[in-house]
Design goal:
Layout lengths: L3 E5 L5 H16 L5 E5 L3 H7 L5 E3 L17 H28 L4 E5 L3 H9 L2 E6 L3 H12 L3 H11 L4 E4 L12 E3 L11 H8 L6 E6 L19 E5 L10 E3 L7 H7 L2 E4 L3 H9 L3 E4 L7 H5 L1
Parallel strand pairs: 1-2, 1-4, 2-3, 4-5, 5-6, 6-7, 8-9, 8-11, 9-10, 11-12
Helix pairs in contact: 3-4, 5-6, 7-8
């Protein structure tokens, strides 16, 4: 049994990061609440960022965007997979509706699988969206130059229209399908450690400038850092071990310090624009150097 069930898109890390922040805050404010999470987000991320008292179940209710790596999107493959999986996702939503009734769930929160609201409506439970965009906007943008996938966009819109309320975060897209929209403040994690403590924990010298490579959950296998080798006044930090890393690259294993502490401790974050990293650099007052991430409609908003 649960009071609130959260459905979180497994795409990247931003959806899981902000929703975990909401869940953890709810647990602190009202520990009696019974909370559940349904997602395909990375298990390692949930293990280190989600209150251990919250149960997690793996189930995909959306596709998100298929990507070759953090900077290369597979647009046609994404829309084709959405179409192919639509009957299966609808079937899963109906099974979820039965589960919601059986477990007497009182509220569904989605960030932002459209099928979560189909499940909520069929179960007679209120459905609340939490995000800065909806997938129909992304897919409509892809379809403008691909064509032939109008049915994919319409299916997403149809299920988003079932939501009772949409809590709209800053840096938002059109969010057209939602009937009732309430703007809410930015959600972001804030550092707990100072720069000195971070450097001490990681064994870093205090007299070097620090840059953090942050490219989400998709990796960046083709990244060549060799041109940075001569910059001995800089240390380049990253959570990904690199086979041919320059001498001034420092691999930071996950779990040694919290990611917001890294963001706050460095002089600059090198990244692609995404809600999670943009919000956390703002919240921790850290400079950003960013690259393009392809023809993605969220990019100019985040810029």
């Amino acid at each position: 049994m649960a009071d609130i069930r959260f459905y979180i898109s497994g795409h990247g890390l931003g959806h899981a990061s902000r929703t975990c922040q909401v869940i953890n805050t709810l647990r602190q404010m009202a520990p009696q609440l019974r909370l559940e999470v349904v997602t395909t987000a990375h298990a390692w991320f949930l293990a280190s960022h989600l209150d251990p008292g919250v149960s997690v179940r793996a189930l995909a209710l959306d596709v998100g965007v298929l990507q070759q790596d953090s900077l290369v999107m597979l647009e046609r493959e994404t829309l084709a997979q959405c179409r192919d999986l639509q009957p299966e996702i609808e079937s899963r939503a109906f099974s979820e509706a039965e589960s919601l009734r059986r477990n007497e769930v009182r509220l569904v929160v989605g960030d932002i699988p459209a099928a979560a609201f189909l499940a909520a409506e069929r179960a007679g439970v209120s459905g609340v969206g939490l995000a800065n965009f909806s997938w129909d906007w992304i897919y409509r943008h892809f379809n403008r130059h691909l064509g032939g996938y109008e049915d994919v966009v319409e299916a997403q819109m149809r299920d988003y229209q079932r939501a009772d309320l949409f809590l709209r975060l800053p840096f938002y897209g059109p969010c057209e399908p939602f009937k009732t929209i309430e703007n809410v403040p930015m959600i972001a994690r804030v550092a707990r450690l100072g720069r000195y403590e971070v450097c001490e924990r990681l064994g870093l010298p205090g007299d070097r400038r620090l840059a953090l490579l942050s490219f989400g959950g998709f990796g960046l296998d083709g990244l060549n850092l060799a041109p940075l080798e001569p910059r001995k006044d800089w240390l380049i930090l990253g959570e990904t071990p690199l086979k041919e890393a320059p001498s001034n690259y420092c691999h930071v294993p996950r779990g040694l310090v919290e990611y917001p502490d890294l963001v706050a401790a460095v002089d600059v974050v090198v990244t692609k624009p995404g809600y999670g990293i943009v919000s956390e650099t703002i919240a921790n007052n850290t400079a950003v150097v960013y690259t393009q991430r392809g023809d993605f409609p969220e990019q100019p908003i985040l810029e």
